[in-house]
Structure formats: structure tokens, C-alpha cells
UniProtKB/TrEMBL annotation:
CDD domains: M1_APN_like. The lineage of its organism: Bacteria, Bacillati, Bacillota, Bacilli, Bacillales. Residues 364-552 form the Peptidase M1 membrane alanine aminopeptidase domain. It comes from Paenibacillus spiritus. This is M1 family metallopeptidase. Residues 1-21 form the signal peptide.
Length: 680
């Protein structure tokens, strides 16, 4: 997800950054970027349930009567070779009531047990319940805000489970239980447990039929309706992830369970989605996957059907106002994909910009991180008042920023590129966004910067971005433990990206390219962890990075260099020559960091660079020169991207009186240089 809030962080920090001018630097920052109201049956004993078959019958073969659905049946395309371990299979029938802002739907879901121990419960995320009141965990943590958007007044929405039963008609509705494993908030109903009549053994499958209603909130935090535009993200009861032992370093298998938090995004298993969506006849639907038949029109409604496999989510958008354009595209690594645009009318003249950005992203990311394996990529542009749905990624579908300007700057391209980057880091390399959000956001931001510089000439000023990280924390924290939106953005987006850039500078660009390529390809259609990334780094480089990861990744370490003291002694004149002996004391109060450069500038205009290994808490440089030392500066080229407080990296010397005139000239030259740096 592209976070706009970093612009606010930047503006609030700009004045402070300018105050660092005494140290001699200034930088530019590039635009960075769910209660279940369960309708319970009477608490009567459930009838006996026959053994769950090892191979559940295909949900596609169920009739409408089987599932309790009154919606059109769905059909399944011919099977293709699986790219992922398809743990889940969803068959969804949904009907949008645009006038009431509601979606009524049925869901037939099959879960295949990927572990080794019997399982008695299934867990489902009911993400829309995050917007049921001001007392949910999401709303309390976020304050009703996400990025620059606020929850509209009285814009609440929720999901109600109306019925849960087995294919044999055994009701499980009374077995639904709300759980809050993270904070015990009784007002939060975004996660439920369904106790099964009998356990599911390893390798077996279980099928459930669900019927539910979704009251769409006003558009906020990735989903909702504004009357003529609907964004259906996280719109269906979605199974949690059951992690076998070894997944992401897990010692014992089990469910990965979390509520919907103010900063957290999502985590799901790969599977198959077969989805029928009925909307008013005038509406156009954009969705994950590809259409399997021409939309059917009946009684003023239009029914679309989509299919997607080897994906871990399904989203759709609908509007009567979409301006639709599509284009076939192929390149090495992209055998053939149809790029589809669903534009707000304000941006109908900008389709070539959207196409160009998408093509650049697909071509380059496929070259860098592995081929794009899907046949479609849809880009949805929300209307001006629908920005809460903008800047978000879903498998094969992304949303751009809302159309608020007729001629936007390159934030248009940057956002499209960022969200397409998530087709790799989140989409195929499916890390846990609850627990290690940097693995998708930082990696995508790194790729975004690289491509924006290559294609649009936008070079990020990373040192100023580093100065915005005022509260560095470990990169493997749960998303909600960063202390609010600002702390989350500082670390997950900015600091995480700077870590990758810092690693690149240490090992070299070619080696870093090889690291990310190897990581993306090895963990394609898998759930990797930070430790898995570390192993890839060490394998590709052939060296241990444990100390680095301990200091900077698994903790919030930052170096904090300082020029503590400059002492100058003028030697007695010998003939016409005068010598100045200088002692410069340096220290590092933060995390150790090797290979530090120090620049010494003299009153006669000369400067020299010396190296400090950086692995000690301090050192003293002794210099002798015919001209007095004017200043000392640690890391003058701002190569140490993880240091966030540079004001003490620079110190001027107190010069002997005889050198004042020449020192003054040096200051004038320094001011000229500073003004040049600050011109951005």
C-alpha cells in the first residue's frame, strides 16, 4: 500500500531539517509513499455429521439449493498446473444493492489441511467489522484516520454472518465465536472461530457454506462506497493462515491469528477464486483475475463472473462512471498480459501515462524478480472523493490515487509503479503483513525508487528521509507495535527501504540485485520471513550478515557519530614556515558501523579524506599542516543511510587569531556550497 502520510511527515520535519544546515547538508525527499453480528440458531445439539471425505466434492458442483444461494451459479474454467500450494478454494456469489450500499453474498469455501495435526476449528477474518463503531481495535488505534483520509461521519459499516452450514445441511451458525487474541477488546469482532463437528486430518479437506450481508462503510481504509463508486476489498469472510512447522521459522504448527489493526494489512493462503458479481445494469466491474464469460443481463442487473488461481485475495470495484481502456502487452518475462484501465472520467485523457507506467513496471520487475505469471492486470482510478480506496494492492488489481487533478505530477506514475511492485512483494512473495510488514512495503519502496530513477529521472534524497526516522525500531515487529501511523511509516517504509539501500552500498549494486532476484524467485508463492531473507543475503554474498541484522534489523539500532572536539596548536615559527598540529576527537554513541569517512578542511581551501574503521566507540586523528584546520565532518557524502541525527557530525575549529581572515574566506566558500546543496 502506498502511504501518503509520509508527505505530512516530511512537511513537519522540513524546518528541522533546514536547521541542520550548521552541519553543512540539506536534502530532498521524494514522494514516498475489520462485530460479527451472528444470527444464532437455538442452542440445540447438532445432528451427527458423516466423515469428512479426504477429497471434498468440488464446490462448483453444488446447486443453489445446496448453498442456500439465490444468486446465479458459478462455473470453473479448465484446471491448469498449480504454481502454488492451493490451500483454499472460494466460490462466491455476490449481489450489490447500490441504493442501500449493501452486498448480499454466499460463499462456499474448501480448506485443505496443510499441516500434520488434526484441526477442530477454522478461523475467519471479518475485516469489514473494523468499521462497525468507534470502539473497534482498528478505529481506536487509528483514531479513525488512515493516511490523509478520515472515516466520514456516520460512515460505519459491518459484516453479518447469517448462516454457516456443511454441505450436508448441518448448521454451524451457533458454533461461531468471536475472538480477540491480540488485545481482548470485546468491541472488536474482526476474527471468528467456527468449531467443526469433527476434526480435519492432515491432507484432508473440509467444505463450509456461508451466507452473509455486508453493509458498506463510506469509503475509508481501502473499502466502501461513495454512492457511484464501490471498492470491495476484504469483502468476504476470509480464512486465516494455518502455518505448518517450519513456515517462517515456526517451531510448532498452528493458526496465525490476529485482529484487524490500525496499521496492519493482511495475510492469506494461496488458492482458487471463482466469483460471480451482480450489479446494476449500468455498472462496470473491475476485479482480480479474468472474466470467464460475457456478462449476463437480466431484469436491470448485470452478472459478471471472474476466475483467479494461485492468488491469496480477491477484490473488485464497480461504478457506472468508469472509462475503460485496455492494451495487450508482452516483454521478456511477461509472455502476455492485458492491462485494463478503469479510469475516473477526469483522467480519461491520461490513459497513456497509466499504460506507460504499468508497462515499465511489468517489464522491469519481471526482469528483476521473476516473470509475471498472470494474464491480466487491472488499474482502478477512484473518483476524487474516493481516495480512501486509492493506493492499494490486490492480486492482479491495483488502485491508483483518486482523480483529484486533471494533470497530476509523477505521483501518478510513482503510485502505479509502487502498487504493481506489490504484485511481487506481497502478491507472489507472500510475507505476513501482520507481523513483518517491512518485507512487502520496504522492498516495494526500494523497487519503486529504483524504477522511478531509471524511467523518470527522479533520484531520491535518502539522507533527508533518514532524518525523518526519529523513532527507529526493529523491523520484525507486529504492525501495530510501531506506536501509531507515524512510527509505522518511519520504520516499515522509510527505515526498511534505507536498510536495503545501505546493504546495497556495502555489497555493491550488482550483488544486491542478485540477492533480491534470488529471494523473490526462491520464495515465490511461499510465505517467507525476515530470517529467510537474511539466509538469502548470506548465501549470495558468501559471508555472514548476522552482526548487521542483529544491530539494524532485529533491533532499532542506528549509528550516532559526532565530532566531539578539535584542538589546534600553532608551532613556533621556524623561518618563514608555520605549522599547525590538530587533534580531532570522534565518537559513536549509537550502533557500531564500519568504514566511516572523515573530511578535514583547512583554512587554505585544502581538504583531505581519511578512513575510520568505525568499530570502536571513539578515535583521535592527529594532523599536521601549514594551514590551520577549519572543520571536520564525519560521512560528508551522507553514505551512512541509517544515521538519522547528523547535526553533531560536523564541527568548526576555534582558530588562532592570526588565521581569522583566511578562516572567514573559508566560511564564505562553505556558505556558497551550502546554498547549492539547499537548492531543491
Amino acid at each position: 500500500m502506498k502511504r501518503r502520510s509520509i508527505r505530512t511527515v516530511f512537511l513537519s520535519a522540513a524546518l528541522s531539517a533546514l536547521c541542520l544546515a550548521a552541519g553543512g547538508w540539506g536534502w530532498h525527499l521524494s514522494a514516498v509513499q475489520k462485530a460479527v453480528d451472528t444470527a444464532s440458531s437455538a442452542a440445540a445439539p447438532a445432528p451427527a455429521v458423516p466423515d469428512i471425505p479426504k477429497s471434498a466434492k468440488s464446490p462448483a458442483s453444488l446447486t443453489a439449493a445446496d448453498s442456500g444461494s439465490v444468486l446465479p451459479p458459478v462455473s470453473t474454467p479448465s484446471p491448469v498446473q498449480a504454481l502454488s500450494r492451493r490451500v483454499t478454494e472460494y466460490h462466491l456469489n455476490a449481489r450489490l444493492n447500490a441504493a442501500a450500499d449493501t452486498i448480499t453474498a454466499t460463499e462456499t469455501v474448501t480448506w485443505t489441511h496443510p499441516g500434520s495435526r488434526p484441526v477442530r476449528d477454522l478461523y475467519f477474518h471479518l475485516y469489514p467489522n473494523a468499521f462497525a463503531s468507534s470502539e473497534t481495535t482498528f478505529m481506536k488505534e487509528s483514531g479513525g484516520r488512515l493516511r490523509s483520509d478520515a472515516m466520514p461521519e456516520d460512515g460505519y459499516g459491518s459484516m453479518t454472518l447469517l448462516d454457516v452450514h456443511t454441505p450436508d445441511g448441518v448448521s454451524l451458525t451457533h458454533r461461531v465465536q468471536v475472538v480477540q487474541p491480540d488485545d481482548g477488546n470485546a468491541k472488536d469482532r474482526t476474527l471468528v472461530r467456527i468449531h467443526l463437528p469433527q476434526p480435519v486430518a492432515a491432507g484432508q479437506s473440509v467444505m463450509l457454506n456461508l451466507r452473509y450481508e455486508l453493509k458498506l462503510p463510506a469509503i475509508f481504509a481501502r473499502m466502501g462506497s461513495d454512492g457511484r463508486f464501490v471498492m470491495a476489498g476484504q469483502w468476504f469472510p476470509k480464512l486465516s493462515v494455518y502455518e505448518p512447522a517450519g513456515t517462517r521459522g515456526r517451531l510448532e504448527e498452528g493458526w496465525n491469528l490476529h485482529q484487524y489493526h490500525g496499521n496492519s494489512e493482511f495475510y492469506s493462503d494461496f488458492g482458487i477464486y471463482n466469483v460471480a458479481i451482480t450489479v446494476p445494469q449500468t455498472y462496470t466491474v473491475a476485479a482480480t483475475g479474468f472474466p470467464v464469460r460475457t456478462p449476463a443481463i437480466s431484469k436491470g442487473e448485470k452478472t459478471y463472473q471472474f476466475y483467479a488461481d494461485d492468488v491469496h485475495d480477491f477484490a473488485w470495484a464497480a461504478s457506472p462512471d468508469f472509462v475503460v481502456a485496455d492494451k495487450a502487452f508482452s516483454s521478456p518475462g511477461v509472455p502476455g498480459v492485458r492491462i485494463k484501465l478503469y479510469l475516473d472520467p477526469l483522467h480519461k485523457g491520461l490513459k497513456e501515462r497509466y499504460f506507460q507506467a504499468a508497462e515499465a513496471a511489468l517489464a522491469n520487475f519481471s526482469k528483476w524478480y521473476g516473470s509475471y505469471p498472470y494474464t491480466t492486470l487491472s488499474i482502478v482510478v477512484p473518483p476524487s472523493d474516493g481516495n480512501g480506496a486509492g493506493g492499494m494492492e490486490y492480486p492482479t488489481l491495483v488502485t491508483a490515487w483518486a482523480a483529484q487533478e486533471a494533470a497530476p505530477d509523477t505521483s501518478l506514475e510513482r503510485t502505479v509503479i509502487h502498487e504493481i511492485g506489490h504484485q511481487y512483494f506481497y502478491g507472489m512473495v507472500a510475507s505476513n503483513e501482520f507481523e513483518e510488514p517491512w518485507l512487502d512495503e520496504a522492498f516495494t519502496s526500494y523497487a519503486e525508487d529504483k524504477l522511478m530513477e531509471q524511467e523518470y529521472g527522479e533520484t531520491p534524497n535518502l539522507a533527508l528521509q533518514a532524518s525523518l526516522v526519529t523513532k527507529p525500531k526493529p523491523m520484525d515487529l507486529e504492525a501495530w507495535k510501531y506506536g501509531g501511523s507515524s512510527g509505522y511509516t518511519q520504520n516499515v517504509y522509510i527505515r526498511g527501504k534505507l536498510l536495503l539501500k545501505d546493504m546495497e552500498r556495502q555489497m555493491g549494486t550488482a550483488k544486491m540485485d542478485a540477492v533480491l532476484s534470488a529471494y523473490a524467485r526462491k520464495y515465490r508463492f511461499r510465505h517467507p520471513s525476515t530470517a529467510d531473507f537474511q539466509k538469502t543475503v548470506e548465501k549470495v554474498t558468501g559471508s555472514s550478515w548476522q552482526a548487521y541484522f542483529d544491530r539494524y534489523v532485529y533491533s532499532g539500532g542506528v549509528p550516532d557519530f559526532a565530532v566531539d572536539r578539535i584542538r589546534i596548536v600553532r608551532e613556533p615559527a621556524k623561518g618563514a614556515s608555520v605549522l599547525y598540529r590538530s587533534e580531532v576527537t570522534l565518537s559513536n554513541a549509537g550502533s557500531l558501523y564500519g568504514r566511516v569517512k572523515v573530511r578535514f578542511t583547512f583554512a587554505d581551501g585544502r581538504s583531505i579524506l581519511k578512513d575510520w574503521d568505525g568499530y570502536s566507540r571513539g578515535t583521535v586523528f592527529k594532523l599536521t599542516s601549514p594551514s590551520p584546520l577549519l572543520s571536520a565532518e564525519i560521512d560528508p557524502e551522507h553514505e551512512i543511510l541509517l544515521e538519522n541525527a547528523h547535526v553533531n557530525n560536523f564541527r568548526r575549529a576555534e582558530l588562532p587569531a592570526a588565521s581569522v581572515s583566511r578562516w572567514t574566506m573559508g566560511v564564505a566558500q562553505g556558505i556558497e556550497a551550502l546554498l547549492g546543496i539547499l537548492s531543491w
